[in-house]
Amino acid sequence: MLPILSAKETDLLKRRLLERANTDYTEQEMVVNSVLRDVRETGDSALFSYIERFDGFKANKDNLVVTEEEVEQAFKIIDPSLLEVMEESAANIEEFHNHQRRENWFIEKNGKYLGQLYLPVEYAGVYVPGGKAAYPSSVLMNIIPAKCAGVPNIFVATPALGGNINPVTIAAAKIAGAHKIYKMGGAQAIAAFAYGTESVPRMDKITGPGNIYVALAKKSVYGQVGIDMIAGPSEVLVIADDSANERFIAADFLSQAEHDELAACMLVTVSRSKADAVRTEIMRQAELLPKKDIVLKSLEKYGTIIVAETLDEAVETANRIAPEHLEICTEDPQALLSKIRNAGSIFLGEYSPEPLGDYFAGTNHVLPTNGTARFSSPLNVDDFQKKSSVIYYSREEFEKVYRKVEAFAQAEGLDAHARSAAIRFED
User: What CATH number is attached to the domain comprising 138?
Assistant: First the structure.
């Protein structure tokens, strides 16, 4: 049975949620470090060896990349109605992310100008989980922001069990705008993207979800290459008042709980009767799900209902937890929007459920988890761009200030810096 807490117990809940990340992965880290070292030192030789070992695919430089024939075959196999949905979703994602594109800017004044250039990274590597399941939505969400940013080389890595990739993954990658798809998975794929091999160019940025080995590999190569984030277990928090529909809230709870046993589902409501109704409905609907066992374990560990005294207290509770997904199911959800400070993605009203953002609306579903929405953002175009500062001073303008530059440098004990400024105006 889901516990019902008061808003004063929010900190206890937050500590419990953060404990989800406190697992000891020493054994997995040793494996990952070995893979990273081998691929860094011996390139293709180690990469192909690990692919054969883990994916049962005898890879070489000639069969590592998905061919045009394989792409054509994938599009023939897939149900046309699914292709249509993926294409429409991709169009929505592209439209949303194109609004994030930035313009270069300059300030010109009296013989000087300063500015900023927005430049895409040259190589972006997107990791896509493989195996029996396919995650085309994740493919779209990672590739399309890179395309909108202007990245000229967008490469996908995904496991090819026995040499075969799920055709839905191939089709989604091509719809999104990927330039190459590599048949490689696991920590070895991250290593190839991070260090480069004879067959795989070195990436500037790596994004995309994966298992614990992929996550640890991304964490280890950060600094050699940029990464999106280290994603934690999924979570949803719903703010509700008496007007909310308990059936809808229960369904949204369970849509997160089915991810895995560490998923966290939370309701903050100002109505004790609504809390009781939602709890009853959650347990009723959970019994109907194919993943009932996972759902019940998730709810038992991290399912929580909090009763707040006011909507302002409910919002403050949400801000302290900083959830990945925040649903506002109140009579006037827009009225609360300006009060939200910390959330990965915000869903307003009962007809904007979290799966709408996962698959179709166009917003990105790669979101900060475990409270990191306090300081980080959903995956976006900025993740695939760099900013370069531009400075120009004429001789006359620099002559007016070079003594100030010289004085500043001398104050920091950097005589060569001071001389660099002064030498331009010596007799």
Answer: 3.40.50.1980
